[in-house]
Amino acid sequence: MADYIGFPPDYLRFKRLKRNTARIELARDLNRFCYRYRLAKCFEGIFAPGVGPTLHLYSIMNKVFLCVTAYEALVKAGFKWQGFDSPFKNEFYEPILADNLRDNKKLKTLLTTYLDKEKDLINKVDDFFSSYSADVHPIAFGLRHVYAHGDFTASAAGMRSVSYRNDINQLGHVTLKNAEIIFSTLIQKL
């Protein structure tokens, strides 16, 4: 059982089901998700001696990045097999976390500055910050985008504050929790 540490809760069930499925491509897509999920779940930080406290901030952001990329692999499988329209049809309603993230003015500035070419995403981020939506999904995807494209800096995201760091870290956990629910639904298609 130790070999399965870090995998989604329904991983053993998935492993049994995938042996006998005719849907090989779905099994492959879901398997890809499982390994990305495991990496995100087990990630504990970046080790770089001498870098200083900023490294901790980048470790948190790297974890969010890994969580969102795992989720994206799952959405891709879901789109092919269950007709998910887009990742933005999936919503993560977290009212307390949403209020906390909305209080982080630097985060809003960072996302609205660097997402200008991503119209769908920037519209969702604008809706989040202006309409008091409790859907934190666009913020997770926005942070992943900014991080992946090299525009992220910890201080620009307001991560010098311990509470804001905790909020962004929680965003990764929420993303994985929602992925677990979707995964459990998708393996029934095998």
In short:
With 190 residues, the protein is an all-alpha fold.
What is the element layout, followed by pairings?
Blueprint: H1 11-19, H2 24-42, H3 54-82, H4 95-103, H5 105-114, H6 119-131, H7 137-148, H8 162-186
What does this 3D model show about the protein?
The structure is a single chain. The protein is mainly alpha-helical and 190 residues long. The chain has one domain (9-189). Helix content is 66%, strand content 0%. The protein contains eight helices and no strands. The model has no long low-confidence stretch (mean pLDDT 87).
Descriptive tags:
190 residues, mainly alpha
Unreliable segments (pLDDT under 50, ≥5 consecutive)?
none
End-to-end C-alpha gap: 23 Å
Helicity level? 55-70%
**Helix/strand/pairing class, anyone?**
mainly alpha
Radius of gyration (CA) equals 17 Å
Give the total of beta strands: 0
Assembly state of the chains shown: single chain
| Whole-number tally of structural domains | 1
SSE sequence, one letter per element: HHHHHHHH
